[in-house]
């Protein structure tokens, strides 16, 4: 509790101290959705999904995976009887043929949404061995997007760090190289759907910089991100139009981390 309160103070201080965008962005561009864009379901990765103690109903559509070669990780929501959820993770060293025992990464959710929630984001840096997760929960000390990471390939996770507080369920994505970590998220406090960004040079222990990815006049939901040294690429879905119809356009923007 004290750690989260301290993180919240740092978050607020970071917002007030930010005098310019931490990323030098290029123009917003669009393309059609294509193979390789994040899927909403992975039938292969749902095979032999274990039951989680106290949360017997896995949310299959929430499964997300990351990994390189035979080393894979999968993360998913599992719903309790009261419709709160537990965030669970498994590691495989055999390309998914067999899996280690599941780890309950986050169990403090007090919401009542069951599986009706954004899927978590996951990223694995094979060079450092760091595993990063980002997700939305409704905890006893406030709802919002939280980040958690493991520095030993998922054996132990550090305490969650608040990325942004807000009651609206928000999708998020994460990428990292060594101690450089970037989280992009649906801004839960915006009146028009847009994408925010939080940046850390301390492996996500603190997010020292914050900003906006999309301009106010660009509707954007369901973001995902890639990091290549200082080069950041963020993609998102364009969302529903004025008639309430969702299209298949993908927006994206490339920038350099200052």
Provide structural commentary.
Strand 5 and strand 6 (85-92) form a beta hairpin. This protein is globular. The chain has one helix and 18 strands. The protein is 6% helix and 43% strand. Strands 1, 2, 16, 17 and 18 form a five-stranded antiparallel sheet that branches. Strands 3, 4, 5, 6 and 7 form a five-stranded antiparallel sheet that branches. A four-stranded antiparallel sheet has the order 8-9-10-11. It is mainly beta and 258 residues long. Mean pLDDT is 89; it is low at 12-18.
Proportion of residues in helical segments: under 10%
Quickly count the helices: 1
Low-confidence stretches: 12-18
Q: What is the alpha-carbon Rg in Å?
A: 17 Å
Structural class by secondary-structure content: mainly beta
From the N-terminal CA to the C-terminal CA, the straight-line distance is 33 Å
* Total beta-strand segments: 18
Q: Which secondary structure elements does this structure contain, and how are they paired or packed?
A:
Layout: H1 2-17, E1 23-25, E2 29-32, E3 57-58, E4 64-68, E5 71-79, E6 85-92, E7 103-106, E8 121-125, E9 130-139, E10 142-150, E11 161-165, E12 172-177, E13 180-186, E14 195-200, E15 209-212, E16 221-228, E17 231-237, E18 249-257
Antiparallel strand pairs: 1-18, 2-18, 3-5, 4-5, 5-6, 6-7, 8-9, 9-10, 10-11, 12-13, 13-14, 14-15, 16-17, 17-18
Features:
5-stranded antiparallel sheet, mainly beta, 1 helix, 258 residues
Q: What would a concise description of this structure say?
A:
The protein is mostly beta strands. 6% of the residues lie in helices and 43% in strands.
């Amino acid at each position: 509790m004290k750690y989260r309160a301290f993180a919240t103070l740092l978050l607020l201080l970071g917002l007030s101290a930010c005098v310019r965008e931490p990323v030098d962005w290029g123009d917003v561009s669009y393309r059609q959705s294509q193979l390789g864009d994040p899927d909403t379901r992975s039938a292969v990765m749902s095979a032999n999904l274990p039951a989680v103690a106290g949360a017997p109903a896995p949310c299959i559509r929430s499964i997300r995976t990351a990994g390189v070669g035979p080393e894979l990780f999968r993360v998913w929501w599992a719903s309790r009887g009261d419709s709160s959820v537990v965030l669970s993770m498994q590691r495989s060293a055999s390309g998914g043929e067999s899996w280690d025992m599941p780890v309950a990464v986050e169990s403090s959710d007090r919401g009542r949404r069951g599986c009706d929630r954004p899927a978590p984001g996951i990223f694995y840096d094979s060079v450092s061995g760091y595993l990063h997760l980002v997700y939305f929960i409704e905890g006893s000390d406030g709802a919002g997007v939280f980040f958690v990471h493991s520095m030993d390939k998922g054996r132990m996770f550090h305490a969650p760090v608040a990325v942004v507080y807000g009651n609206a369920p928000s999708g998020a994505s994460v990428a990292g190289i060594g101690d450089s970590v970037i989280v992009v998220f649906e801004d839960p406090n915006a009146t028009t759907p847009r994408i925010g960004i939080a940046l850390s040079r301390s492996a996500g222990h603190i997010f020292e910089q914050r900003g906006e990815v999309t301009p106010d006049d660009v509707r954007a939901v369901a973001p995902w991100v890639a990091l290549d040294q200082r080069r950041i690429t963020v993609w998102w879905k364009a969302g529903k139009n004025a008639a309430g119809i969702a299209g298949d356009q993908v927006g994206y923007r490339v920038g350099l981390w200052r």
